[in-house]
Each structure stands twice: as structure tokens, then as C-alpha cells.
Write a structure and sequence with these properties.
Two copies of one chain form a homodimer. By secondary structure, chain A is of the alpha/beta class. Chain A folds into two domains: about 1-170, 3-Layer(aba) Sandwich (Rossmann fold), CATH 3.40.50.720; about 175-275, 6-phosphogluconate dehydrogenase C-terminal like domain (6-phosphogluconate dehydrogenase C-terminal fold, Orthogonal Bundle). Chain A is about 55% helix and about 15% strand. Chain A contains twelve helices and eight strands. The first copy, chain A, has an eight-stranded mixed beta sheet with strand order 3-2-1-4-5-6-7-8, sandwiched between helices. In chain A, helix 11 runs antiparallel to helix 12. The longest helix of chain A has 29 residues, at about 170-200. Chain A is globular, with a radius of gyration of 21 Å.
Chain lengths: ~280, ~280
Amino acid sequence: MKIAVIGIGLIGGSMALALKEKGIAQKIIGVDANPLHQQKAIELGLVDEINELDQAVTKADLIILAIPVIAAENLLEKILDRIDRQVVIDVGSTKQSICAVAAKHKNGHRFVATHPMWGTEFSGPEAAAKNAFENKAVVICNKEKSDVDAVQQAEKIYTALGMHLLYMNADAHDLHAAYISHISHITSFALATTVLEKEKEEDAIFEMASGGFESTVRLAKSNPAMWVPIFMQNKENVLDVLNEHITQLRKIKSCLEKDNYAYLAELIGDANKIKRILK
Amino acid sequence: MKIAVIGIGLIGGSMALALKEKGIAQKIIGVDANPLHQQKAIELGLVDEINELDQAVTKADLIILAIPVIAAENLLEKILDRIDRQVVIDVGSTKQSICAVAAKHKNGHRFVATHPMWGTEFSGPEAAAKNAFENKAVVICNKEKSDVDAVQQAEKIYTALGMHLLYMNADAHDLHAAYISHISHITSFALATTVLEKEKEEDAIFEMASGGFESTVRLAKSNPAMWVPIFMQNKENVLDVLNEHITQLRKIKSCLEKDNYAYLAELIGDANKIKRILK
């Protein structure tokens, strides 16, 4: 199968690597607006060739859209205009908005909305990693809107990548994603700006920073070009979770202000229940 | 050298393991109020024997206090009452308060205030890990208040554990610790309660939760018995940082509410500057 990967960054590049390695793709055609990324993707062996979009779409059997979510939507229309037999999947972190675009298009039934639940705080082709998706979940949304063969194609490639398949509506996906991914990024961005704002002795942070700090602040390195569009598209869910998060922080703050340490212990005990979910 | 470890949990147990392995301790005497921990510490080979406090203090050359910070302060007085030649070090996450206790005691010059910057979200003797401290920092506070030989003893054991030594005043330590450790725990606790409060579909979280969620919420498993006393003792610094953190979250919230995505991108760009500190 010939696969076109549009956007050869962290996700697109890692998928390209894995699809080639697993023997799913005989050829990977890369498409990227950034000439430096094009060159790097060839150098790193992520893709076999670089094409313009039209040429890539014509040649490919499967098209993977792996660019920031709002750009992906805009491009999806163009791609759907140009396909007949091909399958198009996206890999974005929001699903309602892109599913709405596909629903309005005459070729929308060739599109499968997917979200492989893997990522790092890095971006660009150099961030592409081997075995990135293994044992992670992939969410496939609104599958009843896609052709059966298109869904099977998507299932086949994700299964080959070692992922387990979850199915849900785009609405449910966006709500859950706000909880398990988008809010973590927001708290991490805010934690980084808090520290950088207030703590002038950066050497001390650098020297003392231990595992706890690193793990909570790591996501703050994430790229605004990817994340701003996600927050725009999932604004309502994200605001809802963010309001609740601020409420929870204010409860802790109030415990400290009032020296109510019994209640603080209770809140921490409640937080400990996350062990039920995260082993 | 005979070393008494008071509190054979995550930190005490890991130090016991390392001090034995590096040949610094010929004998490790464990002291723990919890009979289950006593038994486990013997079973796991963390300690050579379990003693009552008085006996352990009498026999030991060096005493390591590794219990929650308020309990450590209370016990420090008792231990200082009973020593002559011995060195006592603590390993707690706050330093001003315990240094004040030592400063008032006639044997306070035998005490060295230290904070090895390593930990995990787990607790108890089973959480003890090998090579835990290697390449991490240890902070030694107010060293001019301690006898020269006592400081040298502390430096010797931490150097043997592979740690690099930092020196600062207890006040500066507590301020920096609020930024690089205590606030991370608070956001993590609040993130866990946010998710558990609002997200009823725990199966969905469990299935979808990817690396980002895990890394920001991991600390929420941490033990209230350890953390409530830390927050009590470092209340002013923690409140200061927490207020700033809530301010930063509200800025992000306001960007979303007002669809001010240019400013949101700028805030994320600011957060990205954490790369200067965390590689």
C-alpha cells in the first residue's frame, strides 16, 4: 500500500516509521509545507519521497493527515475534493469539528476520524520515534459515518502499530480528551509560567529540580502551533474542566489559609483515589 | 560506621540500601513505629536489626531522621537530648522549622539539616529503591550552625550516594522547594480531584490516559501523612506560589473566554521558556 503522510512531524513521522517497519506501507510519500522538515524527513528515512499535495493524494491508497487541527480541517476539504477510492484518516486531538467538516462533504464517507493516544512534548521530524504507539489506545470516532472498508483500513493500520481500538462519538472523545490530555497541558503551561514569573533564581531551580517537577512541567515544552488550535476547538470542554480545576486549587488554598489540615488530608486522600485509574 | 535510620520508608529505606551497598555503613539499625514496616524492612534486607529509639541512638555513630517533617522535629529534640558524639541528619522537605528546633538545643551543633532531592509517589519500606539518589542534588542548610566534623560526615555519605552538594540557608531552601516540588504536588492533587469529580466514566479515562496525563497526575498518589506536614510548615511560601499559579490559570481561562488566541499563544511561548531550565 502507498501511504501519503501530510505533516511529517512527531505523529506523522512516527507513524511513517512504524508503517514502513511493519510492512504495511510499501511506499511513504511525505507532504510538508516546511522545506526544512521535508529535507529532514528524507535524511532521517521517515519518507521515501516528498511530493506536492495533489500528486501525493493521486498516488496514495491511504492519506494520513497529521497537521495541527484547524489546518487539518481546512486541508481535509481539499483532499476530499480530490479523492475517489482513497481512504483519508486524521490523527488530531479534537474530533467534533473535523467530523462536522467531513459530514458536509460528498466524499466524507471515505474519511475516518482517529486519535492515537500517544505524544511527547517535542515536535518536528526529529521528534519522530520508533515503536511509539505500541500498547497505547487509539480512538476511532463516528465510525458509522465512514465506509466499512475505510474503517477496516484504519483498524488494520492501528492494529499493526500494536494499538488497541476504542470507539466513541466525537462529542464523547472531546470531553474525555479535555480531562485526560488538554487540562494536563494547561496546568503544565501555567506551572511553568508561575515558576518563571516568580522564581528569579533559575540556577537554583535547575540544580534542585527533581523528578516531581520534571514530570509535571514537562508538557510545558509543548508547541503552541499544535496546542492553541486544540484549545480553540475544544474550548467549551476545556473551560469546564479548567473551572473545576481552579475550584479544586482554591479548596486547597482555603485549607492552608484557614489552617484546616484535617480537610487538606481528606482532599489529598480523595486525590489518592486516582490509583484506581492509574496503577 | 553504625547508622541508625529512623523511619524505614521510601527515603530511609533507600538510604539504608545505598549506605550498605557503598560500604559506608557496616551496620544499619532500623527504628520504626509501625510493626509491619519493621518486619518488612528486615525481610527486604533494608536493615540489619530493629531497635527501640534509645538503644539505636546509643549504638549509632550517625542517626538519619527520615519521618514526616513535624514528627521529625518532635523526635529531634529527644534524640539531641540523648547524644554526645553522634551526628544527626534529617532528610525532610522543609528546613526552616527543624533548623529552629536545633538552634534552640544545647546539642544542636551535632545536627545537619539536609534534603536529598529524590522521591517517588510511593511510600513505606516496599517503596525503597536501589541507586535512588545517584546524580541528584542534596541541599545542606545552615551548615555554619553545625560542627565541622558533622557537616563532613553528611557530605561524605551524600557523596558516596553519588549526589552533588548544594548549600543554602533554610529560608532559601523552603522558598525554592515550594516552586520546584510543593506546588507540583498541589497541582497534581487538584488535577486528580478535578478528574475524579467531573469525569464519571473512569473506564474511559483508564483506557485513554496516555503519557501526558500519567506524568502530571502521578504525584497525586503521594501520601497525605507526608505531605500535609510539609504544607503546614511551608504554608507562606506555598500560598504565595499557589496564588501565582491560580493567577496564571485564570489568564489562560480568560484567553479562552475572550477568544484571545494570540495572547494564549504568547503565554504558551512564555511557558516554553522552561526549556532553558529543563533540558
